[in-house]
């Protein structure tokens, strides 16, 4: 049977293989997305309605419009059809979609992608590249085999367990000693890091050639058992690590398990960190264990873990004041806590830490800790911090948090390739590391892969349910992608206590986006009751804006808001554009969009205000600059532009471009018409709602929001009084 393929401009489309190809680039499509494309190809140059796609592709009356919208959006992305005017798939409002092109249909036996290429299917793989690829694969296999041999075989610790004795010669101590010996054999026998044997009369310890041995003694002191254990070099008898344990007589079995688990943990650290037991002193081994334990606490973001980690390291620094690694680890822990809690006290402790050293005594790498503090206090630029971090790449090569920091900084610098490299290094060192997972999702969103980012966080939270940062990022992405009902149903089971303020803000915003202002007001009221006095003023003003109740008393009377963006926005909503512009000009004075910390959405509001107050020349100049700046930004997700370009085109009086941009946004899932910042629709649209073209699009959004409101009611079983 002949293979059917299509030629759409320079794209070759292979339905049976569910892929498209252009200039040697092969892109796979989801099966249903390919079916949509084929149907549009077979029905090109005529309008295909959503109902027709439902019946012929999904063969269902109940497929939601969101599913079809997503399929069209995916096709446009894959075909690079995302310009201001779509080249291939055009949206015909209230009617459907039009494939505005006459494709070629071919039913010859075209070559498989596994066969040599010809002139028709352009795969430019040359023999030279193939030989290079094979050589690289051979090298990679050799490296892997070498790593496998040396890491999984050569590095296994050969350990002899000597029988523990009762140093007080008591029968009960002897029982504990025998139990401990047996428990060590059992626990370590299940470890992949050690080959263990018991030292007894049937084994010639010299023939087995053990690397190390462990032994010790048990004695009773009053109501406690005390265990002294040592880990030593079998060849020289040098003690590498020793520790004393104690536990109550009645809980002696817990003590035995604790000793066995500690030794297992010790050997795991040696293996994971690649430590050289032959050259390490007892002090260096103790500090290595301390650092490892403190670092593991920080691998899942929680307040308690950070505090415990810092406490461990500060105690370690007092115990080992001359150690070079503990202060670096403490500096990293303090920076993590400072960022997590947004607490200046931790930054002050960072400054005190590196300030306690002079130039001669400062540990190698402490300049990076100093750079973290200086960048946070805005005394050095981002690129200087990145350069400092690069200087110590080798020193911090096995530190996952270092790589997560560098990923964050490269993200800020929009150097995404370097950011991705550091994210992968962090996750390789510590699979499931919370911060690295967070930045991986952020990077995916920046690249327009919002569903992949959501999947990354969902998978992570299945194993780390208490990670606050991941919860926030997931909820935020759902909201930013117009999936308000999903965000609500995710957040409602979460216990939103005072420390979960950011999650409650997202819940309030989601309710308002869905046009459930009463429920949004309830959440803002709870925030108001929990907030500190200064923050409560801003919340009270925002609450008044969304409820349209007591706005003058809530906003005008607050002196602390006089110079804030919120107060300027409030004046804009009142229609006092001159006063609003005066406030904005105080904030935007001497600022430039490309270098300021002000959000682009606020720059858009400022531009729109300029146009409303008669400064058309400056407004249009700024609008053109902002359009250039945001041209490559995604519509939805992290660092997205939303519909900023729509408002800017309105400033430029180009309604056709504004409509095209709005169509693009809606096709990608933008449903944020009723925005909490503005208490409803943005003022730029209020004069256009009566226009038929805008009204049609707003009606579509209202229908999509209505469907989502029903999903909230169905899933939660609550809030029925608010359903339409």
TrEMBL record:
Signal sequence, start to end: none
GO terms classed as biological process: phosphorelay signal transduction system; regulation of DNA-templated transcription
Residue windows of the TPR repeats: 400-433
GO MF, one annotated term: DNA binding
Keywords: DNA-binding, Membrane, Repeat, TPR repeat, Transmembrane, Transmembrane helix
Cross-referenced Pfam families: ANAPC3, Trans_reg_C
DNA-binding region: 3-101
Record InterPro entries: OmpR/PhoB-type_DNA-bd (IPR001867), Sig_transdc_resp-reg_C-effctor (IPR016032), TPR-like_helical_dom_sf (IPR011990), TPR_rpt (IPR019734), WH-like_DNA-bd_sf (IPR036388), Ycf3 (IPR050498)
Superkingdom per UniProt: Bacteria
Domain OmpR/PhoB-type, first and last residues per copy: 3-101
Residue intervals passing through the bilayer: 130-148
Name of this chain's protein: OmpR/PhoB-type domain-containing protein
């Amino acid at each position: 049977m002949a293979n059917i393929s299509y030629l759409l401009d320079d794209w070759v489309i292979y339905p049976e293989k569910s892929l498209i190809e252009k200039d040697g680039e092969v892109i796979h499509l989801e099966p249903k997305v390919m079916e949509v494309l084929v149907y549009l190809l077979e029905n090109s140059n005529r309008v295909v309605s959503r109902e027709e796609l439902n019946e012929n592709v999904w063969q269902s009356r109940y497929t939601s419009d969101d599913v079809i919208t997503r399929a069209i959006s995916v096709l446009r992305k894959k075909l690079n059809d995302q310009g201001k005017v779509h080249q291939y798939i055009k949206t015909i409002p209230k009617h459907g979609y039009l494939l505005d092109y006459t494709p070629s249909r071919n039913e010859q036996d075209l070559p498989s992608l596994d066969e040599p290429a010809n002139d028709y299917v352009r795969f430019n793989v040359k023999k030279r590249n193939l030989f290079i690829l094979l050589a690289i694969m051979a090298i990679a296999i050799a490296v892997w085999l070498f790593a496998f041999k040396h890491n999984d075989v050569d590095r296994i610790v050969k350990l002899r367990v000597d029988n523990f004795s009762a140093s007080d010669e008591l029968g009960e101590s002897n029982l504990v000693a025998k139990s401990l010996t047996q428990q060590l054999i059992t626990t370590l026998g299940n470890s992949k890091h050690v080959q263990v044997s018991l030292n007894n009369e049937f084994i010639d310890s010299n023939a087995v050639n053990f690397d190390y041995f462990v032994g010790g003694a048990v004695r009773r002191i009053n109501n406690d058992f005390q265990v002294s254990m040592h880990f030593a070099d079998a060849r020289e008898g040098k003690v590498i690590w020793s520790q004393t344990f104690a536990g109550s007589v009645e809980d002696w079995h817990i003590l035995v398990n604790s000793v066995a688990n500690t030794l297992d943990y010790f050997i795991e650290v040696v293996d994971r960190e690649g430590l050289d037991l032959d050259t390490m002193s007892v002090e260096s081994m103790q500090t290595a264990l301390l650092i490892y334990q403190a670092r593991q606490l920080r691998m899942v973001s929680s307040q308690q873990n950070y505090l415990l980690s810092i406490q461990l390291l500060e105690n370690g620094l007092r115990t080992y004041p001359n150690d070079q690694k503990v202060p670096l680890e403490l500096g990293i822990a303090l920076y993590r806590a400072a960022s997590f809690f947004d607490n200046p006290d931790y930054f002050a402790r960072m400054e005190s830490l590196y300030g306690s050293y002079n130039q001669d005594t400062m540990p190698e790498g402490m300049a990076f800790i100093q750079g973290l503090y200086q960048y946070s206090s805005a005394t050095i630029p981002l690129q200087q911090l990145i350069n400092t971090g690069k200087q110590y790449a080798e020193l911090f090569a096995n530190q996952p948090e270092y790589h997560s920091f560098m990923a964050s900084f490269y993200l800020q610098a929009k150097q995404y390739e370097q950011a991705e490299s550091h994210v992968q290094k962090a996750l390789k060192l510590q699979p499931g590391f919370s911060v690295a997972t967070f930045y991986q999702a952020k990077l995916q969103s920046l690249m327009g892969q919002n569903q992949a980012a959501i999947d990354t966080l969902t998978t992570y939270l299945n194993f780390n349910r208490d990670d606050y940062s991941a919860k926030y990022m997931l909820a935020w992405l759902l909201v930013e992608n117009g999936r308000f009902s999903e965000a609500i149903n995710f957040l409602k089971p979460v216990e939103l206590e005072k420390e979960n303020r950011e999650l409650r803000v997202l819940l309030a915003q989601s309710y308002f986006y869905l046009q459930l202002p009463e429920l949004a007001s309830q959440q803002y009221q709870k925030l108001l009751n929990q907030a500190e006095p200064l923050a409560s003023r801003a919340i009270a003003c925002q609450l008044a804006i969304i409820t349209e109740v007591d706005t003058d008393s809530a906003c005008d009377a607050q002196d602390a808001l006089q110079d804030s963006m919120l107060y300027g926005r409030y004046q804009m909503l009142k229609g006092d554009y001159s006063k609003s512009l005066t406030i904005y000009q105080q904030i935007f004075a001497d600022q430039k969009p490309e270098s300021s910390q002000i959000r682009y959405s606020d720059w858009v509001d400022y531009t729109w205000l300029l146009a409303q107050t008669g400064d058309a020349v400056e407004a249009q100049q700024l609008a053109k600059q902002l359009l250039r700046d945001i041209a490559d930004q995604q519509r939805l997700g992290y660092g997205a532009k939303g519909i900023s370009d729509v408002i800017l085109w309105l400033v430029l009086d180009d309604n056709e471009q504004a409509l095209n941009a709005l169509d693009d946004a809606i096709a990608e899932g933008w449903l944020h018409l009723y925005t909490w910042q503005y208490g409803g629709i943005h003022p730029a649209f209020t004069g256009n709602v009566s226009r038929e073209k805008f009204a049609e699009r707003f009606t579509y959004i209202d229908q999509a929001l209505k469907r989502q409101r029903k999903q909230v009611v169905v899933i939660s079983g609550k809030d029925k009084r608010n359903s339409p």
